[in-house]
Queue: 3 jobs
Job 1
Amino acid sequence: MKKVVKARAVKPARSLSSRPKAKAPSAAFEIAKLAVTALEAKQGLNPVITDVRDFSTVTDYFVVVSGFNIPHLRALFDEVQMTLKKKGLQCYRKAEDPESGWLVLDYVDVVIHVLLDERRKYYAIEDLWAEHRRTR
């Protein structure tokens, strides 16, 4: 007699398309501008917003900023989180290893990269999207 085994339902992994998106692109851009304002308040170097809505399924905007040193990176990182949290926005994911010289905050529609200046030049994130619209 053969034993019958029932198949278990497996939950699919969370796909990019299931990530909650902003109701309107302008809402995402407002988040990016708010992040830049917070970064400028802490003397972030050369903050840039890049519009990747038509070219990326991951996010709508990238914000890239440089800091002077590791404590400055941490201050920029914390300031953005506090500012956006006051507006009711929670960070979806974050990578926060200051010793690496690159911190990332993912707000789904806006991904914020906080880098040491030499890391920013080395990885050249902005150059990867150079053909796309830079909004700031």
Note: Residues 25-41 form the longest helix (17 residues).
Job 2
Amino acid sequence: MEKMPSRRKFSRNEKQYRRQFVRELRANRVVKRLELIILRIYPRRIVYSEKYSGPLAASCGRDETGLVGLVLWGEQIDKVRIGDVVRIESGWCTIRDGELVVSTGLTGKITVIDR
């Protein structure tokens, strides 16, 4: 019996999730795929902790449904600029001072998809 060729559109290692919106974010949950326009990037600062030591910058972004804080780590600070459209994949959402904050965490990634 002959094997049919695979018709998979994506590689096995990368799973495509549907786009999430800011209104769907919940604290202490995974952010699978979120696209934001960067509105503001605050000055970088250096942090020292058990899990991470290095530069960190707070920023904020929005989509059609709302605003959310975003934490940029290390080289992400130089990669992202105000006005960029970014995609956060496999990130993490937390709550700080009553507001939602998104981060790529240890395993996520951020990609600039439009300038």
Note: The mean pLDDT is 89.
Job 3
Amino acid sequence: MRKYEGLFILEVAGKEDVEKDIIDRVQKEIEAAGGSVETVQKMGPKPYARTTAKHNAGNYVNVIFHAPPAAITALDAKFHLDTELFRWHLTEFVVEKPRKERRGPIEESELLAPARK
């Protein structure tokens, strides 16, 4: 099982208390595909960078979950059928490696030394 991050834009304009139902449906789909949800972060309503004739804002939700790699295509197909999901983006969760520390301050002699070929 790999760790994934899913960013979902929910289409809940004019509907009250539907956001929780949509998030529950997404979680059930992930679990039905053999995965498990780790965290759900509601990011709230945000305006779109490019508005369309029908939509100008949506509720954003970030879901971190574990699932087998084959389940991602099945989840994508299921999310296409849900009319209350406006957009979604599923990516593999990658932890950044810590950078190495510099060896110390650069000496003035190193700056003035001729370039090596």
Note: The chain is about 25% helix and 35% strand.
